[in-house]
Design goal:
- By secondary structure, the protein is of the alpha/beta class.
- It is built from three helices and five strands, in the order αβββαβαβ.
- The chain has a domain of 69 residues: Nucleotidyltransferase, domain 5 (2-Layer Sandwich), CATH 3.30.420.
- A five-stranded mixed sheet has the order 3-2-1-4-5.
- α2 runs parallel beside α3.
- The longest helix has 22 residues.
């Protein structure tokens, strides 16, 4: 800054030094000149297109329960042995195939659960699981 060094030090300086202001403006101008071409450079990207079609619903899980007496229950409805094979074949033909969850009572003979698994395999069921309950120690 330029100060007046005369004997009149009580006078207020009434001139603004423009040099720092011009320096700052030139620096900003150079920055903008350099950055504007970079900002205009675009990268072409192919974005995926969304559709409003509903997705296929998940198939409902089939619960096959074997109670203590060895009776079969298809989704909580009692079925006979002959009906079970027919129901399993119908379920195996569906696309997508529903998963089969087998729940056996603790008191049932394992033979009845094995017969249900064999019937499911003969029918062509590919997704077979077991439902178990945690026992307390």
């Amino acid at each position: 800054m330029a100060f007046n060094t005369q004997d009149n030090s009580d006078e207020v300086m009434n001139e603004i030094n423009m040099t720092p202001f011009v320096d700052v403006m030139l620096v900003l101008l150079i920055i903008f000149i350099i950055t504007i071409p970079v900002m205009k450079h675009a990268v072409n990207i192919e974005l995926p297109r969304a559709s409003n079609q509903p997705q296929d619903a998940k198939p409902q899980t089939i619960r096959l329960t074997v109670d203590a007496d060895g009776k079969y229950f298809w989704n909580d409805a009692a079925v006979e042995d002959a009906q079970l094979q027919t129901l399993l074949q119908e379920a195996a033909q569906k696309k997508p195939q529903s998963p089969l969850h087998i729940r056996g009572d603790r008191a049932v003979r394992y033979e009845r659960v094995a017969q249900a698994m064999a019937a499911a395999q003969r029918a062509g069921m590919t997704q077979i699981g077991f439902i178990t309950e945690r026992t307390s120690p």
